[in-house]
Each structure stands twice: as structure tokens, then as C-alpha cells.
Amino acid sequence: MKTILLIDSTLRDGNHAIRHQLNKDQIVKYAAAADQAGIPILIVGHGNGLGASSLQIGESLLSDKDMINFAKGQLKKTKLGVYCIPGFATVKRDIGPAIDLGVDVFCVGCHCTEADTTQSHIGYIRKRDKIVYSCLMMVHMIPQELLLQECLKAQSYGSSGVILMDSAGTLLPSDVKERVEFLVGKLDIPVGFHAHNNLGMAAANSVAAWEAGAGILDACSRGFGAGSGNAQLEVLVAILSRMGVETGVDLYKMLDASDLLEHEIAATLPVTTSTGIVSGMAGVFSGFIKHVERISTQYGVDVRDVLFELGKRKVVAGQEDLIVQTTIDLADKLRRSE
Amino acid sequence: MPTKKLKVAILGSGNIGTDLLLKVRRSPYLECNLFIGRNMDSLGINLARKIGVNVSDQGILAVEKDPACCELLFDATSAKDHVKHWPVLQKMGKYVIDMTPSMTGHMIVPAINRQEAREFRNVNMISCGGQASIPIAHQLMCVAPEIQYIEIVSSIASRSAGPGTRLNIDEYIENTEAGLRSFTGCQNTKAILILNPAIPDVDMQTTVSVKIRNPDLPKMRQAIADLEKKIQQHVPGYKVIVPPVYENGRVVVIVKVRGVGDYLPAFAGNLDIINCVAVSVAEDFAKESLAVKESVL
Q: Which residues pair with B96 in a beta bridge?
């Protein structure tokens, strides 16, 4: 029987969609439903993970500690995971305390060329006997040979898998297939994929990753995530079931969990909006969209121009501060040309 | 102009150490008498040899073996290493400028507490992001003491962050947050570091955000403009590119630092700012120390 590991990031990536305002009731209900459905790993927290609640990215309603505790209380079989990015999260302030609270799995993220910034964090988590997956963000930005070097670093630090994140939703299925196929034979650990839906390709890209040999898929109920959303987890469960791939997830209960998400948690569900499409084309991190919409309105600049300009400036996730500057630059240009 | 220069040593031959070497060579008060790494084949050591500077691959041992090599030492190794180096250097009576985020010495931000550097034998340069942002945060706090939260985000070009910096990201954050707290008195601070691999390389940039209602923007803008001029005296590439603006309940200030392009090209303003600051602190020490000697003579 072919198997795949599913990671549910609804309570993490979904936080981007609602400005990090997930509350206790929502976390408790969804965590219980995910556990019922047999989700192997549930990730919870601020959209950018531990220590990321900030003016830069957005302040979360609940502390990291509360989010972890509320989810942990509901999980019997499902492992509890968190996301963290070195540069935001530190071992002392965030990772150590999360382990003390009972987190089992860490997804350690970084921009796709910066794997060596995660070495000490992965080392610490492994020393405390917890599972680590490395998440390489914005993988559309570099060629596969370079990507391989970064994956090999993650492997050497002790990661149990490398998850490629198409953080701008730029890749097409053929791009995904090429990257995953190239990596799979050269790594001893499984490759995973985390899709964004800016160009409507999230499910297709996830399937392409599986067909190319990926062993992990990361997705969210109803695609509840940053920008245009992620791959729809319950859709993947259905597709994988039709393909004869074992996920360990109960389809009906997964559908129930996603209904719960739609009716009781997500005020609005992510759709591929016009700005989402532009951000996918421009290769700009989906988490930027809400900020760009707000700031471009304030300065009277076309949101699409701001996104394409940000793409040209090759901003990476975490550089939300550049939105203000880029928008002001464009507004100045407009004023001069009038 | 002094007739003699103060002998200094640089411990650590990475990006920071090598850039420091080039800056020290331009100083009328300092002379690099020993440049120390751990590997004779490293880029930094090779460059030092080429320009005729004494080099060693013996690490801290080089100073122990030759105590007369310097009066002042820049430690540009790593936070963990500096903790081991300091007791040795302290015993030898060296004046130490710590470039690492080790939280050992007294923190100095020249625009705020330059004179305090002379009261201690080990002074800490905090971090590049700290040197860029703490003076700004301090000025905003002077205008609006009611600020309850300060956040700084520095983005630097990947190429400017060597292996030491990459391994010390947590220490960078902890030291920068500690510096922000200690200089502003605001207890709730956050520091974020982003490495950007974009080609062409991005200039070092730091954003300071503070939470505040009804800020006095004209007063803040004046305070920041005054500060910019003051810092430019010792960090020529320091520029406020977004003066205080109010957005979404926060005041935002963005500064950019262009380097003079000593070791790495101008985008590496992070090297430049911390090294300019360190050289300026070292020159203060040298001027005083040389003046004392000349008066004795």
C-alpha cells in the first residue's frame, strides 16, 4: 500500500487569513475535529510561527503558549506541531518553552537559500528528541541544483523531511514535478510540498508532487491560509483515496472538520482574487497581500503595480516593511508624472 | 595628528574582522599590528598578508604568546568564543571591543553614550541592527516617553552574513532586544532579522516601529533628522529613507545603511555600521591613550 504523510496547517497558515485572530473556541473545536479525523500532525500558531506576533507581520490575538495549550488539550492521537522561522523565533524564548508545553513536531522554516540559519535550532530540537521538518520557502526563486544543496544541509542537521513551500503560488504542475523528481533520488529523507492557490494550481501541484515521489503533503481545510489560500486538505484526502494512496485520515470526519472550519471559524474563505493572481504571477509571498491592499489604498496606488514592483525587488517573506517604502516610491513617481 | 599610532589586534578573520582591518588602516590613530584567524588559507588572512599586515592562525593563543602585540583588541569571532576570550584578555589588561552578540561587555551606541566607553575595559557593539535602530528608538522615546512597545526589523543581504553571523542568529536577537530595552527603558521590545538572498544584493535596511496613539510627527521628524546628521559623522552611509510616518496605529521609521565598500560591496551596510562604530570607539580610546603617553614624554 502506498502511503503519504499529511500535515494539517489550518490553524497556522489560516491565521494569516484572519490577521492572526484565531480564538480559543476555534482552536479547541478544530483540534478536536482533526484528532477525530485521524490527522497525523496538526500545526497551530501565528501564521509565521513561534515568536512572530509583531507589528511587522501582525499581532496574534492569543499568545503562542495559549494556542499550544488549547490545541494540545484536544489531541489524543494527532501529534501537535508548530512552525518557527529563525530570525523570528529563538531557542531560548520560543522553541525550548514550546517543547516544555508538549509540542511533538517542529516545522523549521527559512527562505529557500538560507538553510544554514536553521542549524542550531534543528540541532536543539533533535537533542530534545522531537521531530523536525525543514520548510524551504519561496522555492520558485531558485534553480533545482541550488535547492538540492539546501535540502542536503537540512538533512545533515537532522531533519526528518524537507517540505518545499511554493509561498507565492507561482509554480505550475510541471515545475513541481521537475523539482521534486530531481530531489527525491538524491536525498535520504522524504520530500514534501506545501502549495498556494494563487494560480488555482494548489491541488494539481500537490498531486504532481506526490506523483513525482513526494512523501509529505502540507495543506489546510478549505485551503484556509494566506492570500489565495493553500491546497484544500479534504480535497487532497479525497483525491489520494481515489488514487489508492493511504493517508490514515477518515474521509467523512475530514469533511466534517472542514465544514466546521467553514461554518464556525473562517469568517471568509480564501478565493483566488485578482490581487492573488497578480501576486502569484509576480512571485510575491501570499502573506503580503492583505498588507499591500491596505497600504496601496492609503497611498492611492494601484495594488497590482505595488505587487509587480515588489516582485521586481525580489522581496522575501518577512520583509513586509518594504511594502510601505515601495508604495511610497510608486506614489512619488505617480505624483511627478502628473 | 598623533606622531604615533595605537597598536591594535583583530581577532577573527571573517567578514567583520576583514572589513575592520581595512577601516583601521585608514585611521590616523590606529595601527593593526596583528590580524588573527584560524586558517592561513582563509580569504581574510590572505588579504591581510597581501597588504603587509602581520597575521597568525593561532586564535587567542597568538595574543597570549605576544602580549605586546596590542593595547586594544577587536574580537570579531563569535559570541561563544568571546565568552572564553574575555577572561584571558582581561588578565592581560587589554582594552576589548567585542563585535559579537555575547552580552559580556558594556553596550555602547556612540550617538547615545559614547563617553561611557572609557569607563569599561570590555565594550560591546551590540549588533548591526542594534546600531542602526537603537538611536532611532531612543529619539522617538525622548519625544514620546509613553511608547510601550518597540519593534525593529533588519534585513541584510545573504552574502554579507558569514558563517558566524548565521550560527549566532538567536544571540543577535537576544543582544539587540537587550540593547533596545537598556537604552530606551521600554521593556517590551522585539527584534527580527531577515536574510535576503536577492541578486543584485539588497542594501542593509532597518525598520523601527513603535506603538503609539496621536504621535507628534513633526517633532519626531525633527528629532530623527538631527540624529541622522549626528550619526553620519561616524557612519557616512547612514540614511533615513522613510522619516516618521503614521500607519495602522504605529509610527514607522526606515533607515538604510550603505557601506563604503571596504571588504564587501556597498550593500553590506551591516558590516559598515558596526565597524564604523567600533573604529570610532577605538579612536576615542587611542586619542586619550596617545595623549597621555605624549604628555609623559
A: B73, B122
| Residue B216: half-sphere exposure toward Cβ, Cα within 13 Å | 14
Each residue's pLDDT tens digit, B114-142: 999 999 999 999 999 999 999 999 999 99
Instruction: Catalogue all structural domains in chain A, each as residue range(s) with its CATH number.
Output: 2-265 (3.20.20.70), 274-337 (1.10.8.60)
Range of the domain at B167: 128-268
Residues B88 and B201 reside in one and the same domain: no
A194 catalytic? Reply is: no
Strand-pairing partners, residue B204, are B257
Q: Is A58 left (phi over 0), alpha (psi -120 to 50) or beta?
A: left
Question: φ and ψ at A197, to 5 degrees?
Answer: -105, 25
Looking at the structure, do residues B202 and B218 belong to the same domain, yes or no?
Answer: yes
What does the block give as the cell for B157? Answer: 543581504
Model pTM?
0.90
For residue B195, which residues of chain A lie inside 8 Å, CB to CB?
87, 111, 114, 117
| Long-range CB contact pairs, A236-243, < 8 A, 24+ | A236/A6, A236/A203, A236/A206, A237/A6, A239/A203, A239/A207, A240/A4, A240/A210, A243/A207, A243/A210
CB of A294 within 8 Å of a chain B CB? The answer is yes
Test the A interface: residue of B128, B152, B194, B252 with most A CBs within 10 Å: B194
- Tell how strand A79-84 and strand A245-246 pair up: unpaired
Beta carbons of B196 and A111 less than 8 Å apart? yes
**β-strand pairing of B6-11 with B72-75:** parallel
The ipTM is: 0.88
* B173 and B97 part of one domain: no
Nearest CB to A87; choose among B169, B202, B211: B169
Note the pLDDT tens digit of each residue in A282-325.
Answer: 999 888 888 899 999 999 999 999 999 999 888 887 677 788 88
